[in-house]
């Protein structure tokens, strides 16, 4: 089987990693012989799975994706989306039964440069790792908004001339933030100011898929913590992303109970997810 995957600045590149005998066919759980199928669009991915992480990653199949275009595949009940440069990493997001996921991860064509991280729910990721296909490197949280957002918050969109203030606040209050001003995935920033106009808390509308908004880059001035400002800006941002996309998600450090509690009060539900390297692709840690 020959697979096509798109590049922004050139014509499609052909990869023949899947041409070895039998590589594109697999006996699924039903006993039927299943063929590996490439999913061409984000709509195809949404038709194949309702998993929010895959919906999010499938933005890499859109024409306006800011990095090299991604690709996606399905085999039996497994779906894998390759999203280069998504939220700082080349991501290989997966869902489905571990046998089918393991079979698919061993067959998809992947470039060998960059920092690749496979990503799935922790339970699924560990079952796949037990089959020798991936090696776990870290576990954190993925949170999805459940139902309608809590409404009635007060914040504002920050105009571009004020982005330097956002950068300064992040450098001081959250220097390890994955999203910063200038990041191609940072679409816009929300903020809360005090009566004097000082910027106290921020959060980013970042890396959105058409049907799923995403929050990152949350930070509150150290001297003003404990006043509910992060909840205020995130609640306000959640309202607007929900109204635009119909769903909202975010990532959170599993060792940050205060942040998890904040997002839970806003209506988000926590799931444990695990990142892993892919054994078939030798890359530096």
UniProtKB/TrEMBL annotation:
GO terms for molecular function: acyltransferase activity, transferring groups other than amino-acyl groups. It comes from the Bacteria. Keywords: Acyltransferase, Transferase. It holds the Pfam family FR47. This is GNAT family N-acetyltransferase. Transmembrane segments: none annotated. Residues 132-284 form the N-acetyltransferase domain. The keyword Transferase applies.
């Amino acid at each position: 089987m020959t697979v096509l995957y798109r590049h922004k600045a050139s014509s499609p590149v052909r990869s023949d990693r899947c041409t070895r005998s039998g590589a594109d066919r697999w006996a699924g759980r039903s006993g039927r012989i299943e063929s590996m199928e490439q999913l061409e669009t984000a709509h195809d991915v949404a038709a194949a799975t309702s998993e929010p992480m895959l919906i999010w990653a499938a933005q890499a199949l859109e024409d306006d994706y800011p990095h090299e275009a991604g690709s996606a595949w399905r085999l039996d009940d497994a779906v894998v989306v390759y999203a280069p440069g998504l939220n700082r990493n080349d991501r290989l997001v997966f869902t489905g039964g571990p046998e089918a996921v393991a079979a698919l991860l061993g067959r998809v064509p992947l470039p060998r440069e960059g920092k690749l991280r496979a990503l799935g729910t922790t339970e699924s990721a560990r079952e796949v790792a037990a089959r020798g296909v991936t090696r776990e490197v870290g576990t954190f949280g993925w949170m999805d908004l459940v139902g309608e957002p809590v409404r009635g918050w007060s914040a504002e969109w920050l105009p571009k001339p004020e982005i330097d203030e956002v950068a300064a606040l992040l450098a001081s209050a959250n220097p390890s933030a994955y999203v910063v001003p200038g990041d191609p995935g940072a679409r816009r920033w929300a903020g809360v100011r005090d009566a004097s106009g000082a910027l106290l808390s921020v959060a980013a509308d970042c890396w959105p898929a058409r049907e799923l908004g995403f929050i990152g880059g949350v930070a509150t001035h150290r001297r003003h913590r404990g006043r509910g400002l992060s909840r205020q800006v995130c609640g306000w941002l959640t309202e607007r992303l929900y109204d635009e996309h119909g769903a909202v998600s975010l990532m959170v450090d599993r060792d940050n109970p205060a942040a998890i509690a904040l997002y839970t009060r806003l209506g988000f539900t926590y799931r444990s997810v695990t990142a892993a390297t892919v054994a078939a692709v030798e890359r530096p840690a």
